[in-house]
Amino acid sequence: DKELIVTGSGINVYPDELEAVLNKIAGVKESCVIGVERGGGEEVHAVLILDGSGLAPDEIIAQANKSLDTLHQITGHTIWNEPEFPKTTTLKIKKFAVKEELKKGPEEGEGAVSRDSLLNLLARVTGTSAAQIREESLLVADLGLTSIDRLELVNFLEQEYRLDIEDSRIGPQTRVSDLRQIITKREKLTRHDHFRFWTNNRFCRGMRMSWDTVFHGPLFRSFATLEVRGIEKLEKLGGPVFFVANHLSYLDQPSVMSALPPGIRYSCASAAWAEFFFGEYHGLNRILRRLSYEYASVLFNLFPLPQTQGFSGSLKFMGRLADAGINILIFPEGGHARDGQMQPFQLGLGIMVKELGIPVVPIKISGTDRVLPPGASFPKAGKVTVTFGEPLHFRYEEPAEIVEIARQAVEKL
Fold first, then answer.
1. Mean pLDDT value across residues 202-213
2. N or C of the chain: less Cβ packing under 10 Å?
3. How confident is the model over 308-325, as pLDDT tens digits?
4. Among residues 319, 314, 292, 287, which one has the least CA distance to residue 303?
5. What is the dihedral sign for C-alpha 38, 160, 394, 340?
6. How much of the chain is in helix, strand and coil states, percent to nearest 5?
């Protein structure tokens, strides 16, 4: 039987598959992947024998993890200072002996590797040596934790410790000791996330189809003449995708939905600016925005995507959508282009695409800013064009690369 590691999140990891990846990396003479008990599950821990000719240990782990999916990442490592691992007569590594050796505690002196899984996670995410991380270190100011790093850290904390934590919980004043306390106490943040997966059921899809037929469709056509280009690019879609479009007007979402074939349209959810509905509003304005979300979440299948904090909840929700075969429409500029020129795409798009691993279909919208300009209360008659591009597939690209490639693809349409 194959050896097996069961992580804190219940994921099965096969050590030999990870060892095969590690042993191909320059500088690794031999590797041994074991499960180290951390309470509630095992940490995927790599023990390395180096030949001194290649990368540093942290770089080796980072390179290995690039070729592993998020759920099977190596979260801790140790350097084995002997020339060989203890082995059986058939040259199989005695992993129980390796584990026993590690239990003796960390070695003293320069080059010692932390066996504290939290420090290892922080070191991996921030690029700071575990030996330099202190309990009083500020995650942002001292360790250089970026907004992208924060999402990655939350993801690993959830896997490693079965911890339900919003990325907004980790801020500029958060220290390593604060994070350790959250883990120890298993503190949970009370959330009102407003996500509604049930709006994708058959009944709600039928409601949208009927309402589009009797109301939304006739209303849209009363002032907009729609031209659709590149619709044939959608014929070979074999699963859920991100539809990524430029953003000119509040009319953009219904324009894209009207352009999509019904089979795709009613299997698509749209990301909407969360702060528009759930910002700091008061009185009648607050009530109207909440009511507008009730309407839009059911009859437009919108879900909230925050631009300031709490992004990890949206990422999880999009993962559920993709797992259910539901497409996702997103406008990564984050706001309307006031002069018609595309704004930079936000890095969150790259994180979403990399995490979910689904293709991106670029979409170019034109004319909506003339039919319903930003700030206008009523539309004017005019032509709207929606152009679909070839699906883009990403595998090894980093979030920033994904964002730039997607933006260029939209711009060229």
1. 93
2. N
3. 555 667 787 888 899 899
4. 314
5. negative
6. 40, 15, 40
Which one is predicted more confidently, 167 or 243? 243
CATH architecture for the domain at 197-412 = 3-Layer(aba) Sandwich (3.40)
Any long-range contacts for 18-21 (C-beta under 8 Å, 24+ apart)?
A: 18/44, 18/46, 18/64, 18/68, 18/72, 18/74, 21/64, 21/67, 21/68
- pLDDT tens per residue, range 228-255: 999 999 988 888 999 999 999 999 999 9
The pLDDT of residue 15 is 92
pLDDT tens digits along 104-135: 755 443 334 455 678 878 887 887 877 788 88
Amino acid at 277: F
Buried b (16+ CB within 10 A) or exposed e, 104-132: eeeeeeeeebbbbbbbbbbbbbbebebee
Q: Is the pLDDT of residue 377 over 50?
A: yes
Q: Given 3.20.20.210, 3.40.50.300, 3.10.310.30, 3.30.300.30, which CATH number is that of 5-185?
A: 3.30.300.30
Residue 330 reports pLDDT greater than 50: yes
Q: Which helix (H) or strand (E) holds 411?
A: helix 399-412
- Residue 378 CA to residue 77 CA, distance in Å, equals 61
Q: How far, CA to CA in Å, does 154 sit from each of 122, 140, 182?
A: 11, 14, 12
**Domains of the chain by residue range:** 5-185, 197-412
CA distance 290 to 23: 55
Contact between residue 370 and residue 250 where contact means Cβ atoms under 8 Å apart:
no
- What is the rounded CA–CA span in Å between residue 408 and residue 341? 13
